[in-house]
Amino acid sequence: MSELALATLMLQGDRIGFTDCATYIHAVQQTEWFMAAFSAYTDPVAVTGGPGRSHADASQRLVKIGALDRLDAGKCEQACLHELAHIVTPDCGPGRELREPAQGRGSSRGHHHAWRANFILIVRMSMGKQAAMRLRHEFGQWGLPTRK
User: Fold this and answer.
1) What digits encode the pLDDT tens for the residues 14-37?
2) pTM confidence score
3) For residue 145, what pLDDT band results from cuts at 50, 70 and 90?
4) CA distances from 111 to 19, 31, 91 (A)
5) Which of residues 111 and 32 earns the better pLDDT score?
């Protein structure tokens, strides 16, 4: 877990408040490395909470950090970074073509190669090299390549 997460993602009763998630995500968006890597995405995204799991809508620039992902700071940080990677890596590439099939054998349900590469970069810069290496290993275990 990062120092930023320790400082911003505090339990309030049995959950971390989604406003704390917004503070964390917005702080990541304002880091030098993020502004250099994702200059088109430095305006703060809208962050909401709610039941269930987390979700991001790149077209709406909206991140929902679900209640199930706000039980502890470590899980919450991972969810925030995961959803932020969806914001900076839409499912459609240049020309509006899908980066991968929407369904079926060739689909990783929005977790396409470009998203995985950006997620690893975001984790590395936010949480450190070891966390990024663990994530890359997990993707490999699932048969999802992270290198071209």
Assistant:
1) 999 999 999 999 999 999 999 999
2) 0.91
3) confident
4) 26, 24, 8
5) 32
140/87 Cα distance (integer angstroms): 23
Residue partners of 82: CB distance under 8 A and separation at least 6: 54, 119
Distance (Å) of CA 14 to CA 68, 81, 112? 11, 21, 33
State the first-to-last Cα distance of the chain, in angstroms, to the nearest integer. 28
Length of the chain: 148
Rounded to the nearest 5 percent, the helix, strand and coil shares of the chain are 50, 15, 35
CA triplet 52, 90, 125: central angle to 5 degrees? 80
Distance CA 7, CA 53 (A): 23
Whose CA is closest to 85, among 15, 11, 10, 29?
29
12 strand-pairing partners: 15
